Each structure stands twice: as C-alpha cells, then as structure tokens.
Amino acid sequence: MLTIERSLVDKIVAHARADHPDEACGLLAGPEGSDRPTRFIPMTNAQRSPTYHDFDSGEWIKVDREMSDRDEEMIVHYHSHTSTEAYPSRTDIDYLRSPLADPRVHRVIVSTRDPEEIEFRSYLLVDGEVVEEKVEIVDSYS
Question: Is the peptide bond before 37 cis (omega within 30 degrees of 0)?
C-alpha cells in the first residue's frame, strides 16, 4: 500500500494538469528505507510527448546525486496519461519488467483525460506481474 500526504498528491496532479497535453513525469523522494515519500521533485519530460515520457538525463543525474547526498531514495515514480485511464501502458509494463526498474518503487499514474476528474492510481511489480495497490491519502504522516 502507498501512503501519501494529500499535499504531495495535489502537487502531482497540478504538475500533470500544467504539462497537459504532454505527459508529466517526476518523483517523490524520501528517507532511505522508509517507504515514506516526503519531497516532490517534478522532472522535465525530455520527449515532450502526449504518449511517452522520459526524464531529462542531465536533470536525472543531478537529482540522483542530490538524493544520495541527502540520504534519500526514490519512493514514487509518477507520470500522467493524457487521453487514457490511469493504467500502465505496454511501454510502462515493459519498463517495470526491465532490470533497470526498482521493484520497491511505487509507480503512480495520473490520468488527465477528464479535466473535471483526476484518476490517481499506483502499481508495483510483484513476482513479474504489475499489480495495482491501494493508495491511502493522509493529511499528514503520524
């Protein structure tokens, strides 16, 4: 289960809406080993595409070093779908199954296809299968 503060959800949704019609992408960092996202880090979609996202490589190197210096790790990787539901695409699934993907990272997808309603869902890779997980949105961590 992903437990996440409402303020972080709001920032992800705002980023997804701002980048629409292109996919937005970014991450939430948190203390190493905590599984608790605390810091919002929007990234540049180097593809500037409505159907695909990829972190800007130079920006990613900088963010990765910064997380290491702060004893943080990626807890959530998020991106938006602009015209489809918040469900992993074939490309998303292929990436999740690749050796590059950390199976501990929550994969949040936000759909911006309906401007009046936002779909916010999270997935994990479990035994080689993509599984939707429950998302608990809290006002603050206790």
Answer: no
Max CA distance (Å), the chain: 40
Beta strands in the chain (DSSP E): 2-5, 25-31, 39-43, 72-81, 106-114, 117-126, 129-133, 135-138
Cα–Cα distance for residue pair 124/130, rounded to 1 Å: 6
Cα angle 37-42-46, degrees, rounded to a multiple of 5: 135
- Number of domains present in the structure of the chain: 1
The predicted-structure confidence for 118-136, as pLDDT tens digits, reads as follows: 899 999 988 888 899 999 9
CATH of the domain at 70: 3.40.140.10
Enclosing domain of residue 129? 2-138
Conformation bin of residue 35: beta by default, left when phi > 0, alpha when psi is -120 to 50: left
In tens, the pLDDT along 22-63 reads: 999 999 999 999 999 999 999 999 999 999 999 999 999 999
